[in-house]
Specification:
By secondary structure, the protein is mostly helical. It has a single domain, classed as Hypothetical protein af1432 (Orthogonal Bundle). Helices cover about 60% and strands about 0% of the residues. It contains 10 helices and no strands. It has helices at about 5-15, 20-40, 45-50, 70-75, 80-90, 100-120, 135-140, 150-160, 165-180, 180-185. It is globular, with a radius of gyration of 16 Å.
């Protein structure tokens, strides 16, 4: 089966209606595609996996169901096992170890893309365009900020890719900037303060 992004988008939007979850899928897709280019991997294939990683979450958010229900649906629709395995591996509780570079990249980008979105949205500009790694690291130290994101997952993702945390953050920011309009993160860049 050839992976077709339009088909993946139709599947995603069939099961996911919420704007924030759709934007999350697009953010993770942007980040994973960026790494596919860096690693000379198939950008389309990796992007489809990222786009679909949470497609079942809105309907079945419990750990008993997600991503297992989605995996069943993907299997029924003829998606290859490597796609299903990668999606299963992003959930720590699935029992599927992250072994391939794609699996490690998906995990590394999933929580990071969500955290960067939150960090961008609290900026005065509400934009990823002026978000910098040092401010993200500072936000990571604030336990009250984006409380649901495990900081150890953000660090573990960078380690899985063999990158310093700030470099991983910079890479994901750069990829998300390319899709800032689709992500709703272009914001309104403020003019420089007058002297």
């Amino acid at each position: 089966m050839n992976l077709v992004r339009d088909d993946a988008w139709k599947l995603l939007t069939e099961y996911t209606k919420g704007e924030s979850l759709l934007k999350h899928a697009l953010g993770v897709e942007a980040a994973v595609r960026g790494y596919a280019r860096k690693f000379s991997e198939d950008e389309n294939d990796w992007g489809v996996v990222a786009l679909l990683h949470d497609f079942d979450y809105e309907r079945w958010p419990s750990a008993d169901d997600h991503p297992f229900r989605g995996s069943e649906i993907l299997r029924e629709r003829g998606y290859p096992e490597w796609v299903i395995r990668a999606i299963l591996s992003h959930a720590d509780y699935s029992g599927v170890a992250r072994e391939s570079l794609l699996e490690k990249t998906l995990f590394a980008c999933d929580e990071m893309a969500g955290f960067l979105t939150a960090a961008a949205l609290v900026r005065p500009s509400k934009s990823v365009m002026d978000l910098e790694p040092f401010s993200v690291v500072k936000r990571m130290k604030d336990k009250a900020f984006a409380r649901g994101v495990k900081r150890e997952d953000l660090r573990a993702g960078a380690e899985l890719l063999g990158l310093p945390l700030d470099q991983h953050i910079a890479n994901v920011i750069a990829s998300m900037r390319e899709q800032a309009d689709a992500l709703g993160l272009r914001g309104t860049l403020l003019p420089p303060a007058s002297v």
